[in-house]
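Issue: ligand-bound run for iron/sulfur cluster - logging full I/O for the record.

Environment: standard queue, default settings, no custom constraints.

Inputs:
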Amino acid sequence: MEFMPNFKLYRPDNVDDAIKIKTEHAEARYVAGGTDMIVNVRRGIEQPQSLVDLTSISNMNDITEVDDGLQIGANVTLRNVRENQIIQQNYPCIAEAAGSVAGPTHQQYGTVGGNLCLDTRCLFYNQSEWWRQSNDYCLKERGDTCHVAPSGKRCFAAFSGDLAPSMLVYEAEINVVGPSGSRRIPLLELYRDDGMAHLTLGPGELVERVHLPMALAGDPSRYEKARIRGSIDFPLAGVAIRLRKGKGNAVEDVAIALTAVNPYPKIISGLQGLIDGNLGEDELDFIRDAVRKQSKPMRTTTVAPWYRRRVVGALARRLAAELSA
Ligand SMILES: Cc1cc2nc3c(=O)[nH]c(=O)nc-3n(C[C@H](O)[C@H](O)[C@H](O)COP(=O)(O)OP(=O)(O)OC[C@H]3O[C@@H](n4cnc5c(N)ncnc54)[C@H](O)[C@@H]3O)c2cc1C
Ligand code: SF4
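Outputs:
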């Protein structure tokens, strides 16, 4: 870690001012809990001359029940998500995912917005300045070669936030606010398949809140991840699954989403054939194989891609079996 560099800290108390400051200082970066941003600043990965702290914006701090579901402000902490009884009852894998982020101290400060907008991660990127310098940096940061796939010009750094997959299986939407107004979009549209620029936010835009639909409230769900240190670590692979059953134990609806095995949180496609049937051994094997095929882990962690692909399939199969039991 380097010493903390000098930067100017702005602390607006409303969204309009935050956007105005960010627009006037093109190089500025938003910060919320700072649990990822400040680490990156001290590693020299981020070198902002100014930071715009969002945590004094009070209308981004609440969890509110509304007619069509639940709204979660982007500044709500992971601890509050983990402990919220409505989320625990109606959207259980979201509370579970929040409680699996890092450790309790990170959950105390880390926010929903910061987790959804978390930078992508790679073994060759999340390192100190001298380490990256001695490797001639890499495509994502000041270099011209990707050390994971040196013959290409793509970055495969993995999106490794825990909340996104758990919200995607509940078809979450987000409010994005920026210089040209506000728009409500599916959470999935926040992301794109590019480790260098994985968010679709335009200049000055920020995530204001998340909407969870009433229609899916109460559907059973689970989230689980594999990580190196069980007490505090990013996922090597994470799986969220929502499974609703109907008459005769048949599957009425199912959704699965992954984290840490692609540059964006991935929704598993091709599960329609499971609707109206029971989940026996063949169907569980089908889920495992579909998840393995659609996850594309690369050599971005100390753990081999083949292991992460195997583990993500095994996790999905196990969670599906648990929810179907
Ligand atoms: C040791 C360690 C372990 C960790 N383990 C995990 C883990 O297991 N799982 C996990 O998911 N994360 C992990 N993290 C990362 C981090 O703690 C969490 O992701 C946390 O939720 C980030 O939230 P924050 O509010 O602190 O974000 P910040 O660090 O403040 O910001 C993160 C990014 O989001 C942007 N941002 C913040 N709020 C908004 C907004 N409203 N709109 C637009 N952009 C915004 C910032 O500009 C920045 O780019 C870990 C971090 C450390 C240091
Ligand atoms: S995948 Fe390649 S370009 Fe992206 S961070 Fe890793 S080494 Fe850098």
